[in-house]
Amino acid sequence: SELDLKEILDFAIECAKTVGPIIKDGYYRKKDISEKLGPADLVTKYDKEVELKIVEMINEKYPSHEIIGEESASENIVLSKKPTWVIDPIDGTTNFISQFPYCATLIGYMVDRVPVVGVAFNPILDELFAARKGNGATKNGEKITVNDTKEISKSLIITEFGSSRDDKILDIVLENMKSTILTPSRGIRALGACGPNVCCVASGQADLLYETGMHIWDICAVSIILEEAGGVVMNADGSTPLNYLNRKYIASCTPELAKEVASKLKPIDVPADGIE
Ligand code: IPD
Question: In the chain, N or C terminus with fewer CB closer than 10 Å?
Answer without folding.
Answer: N
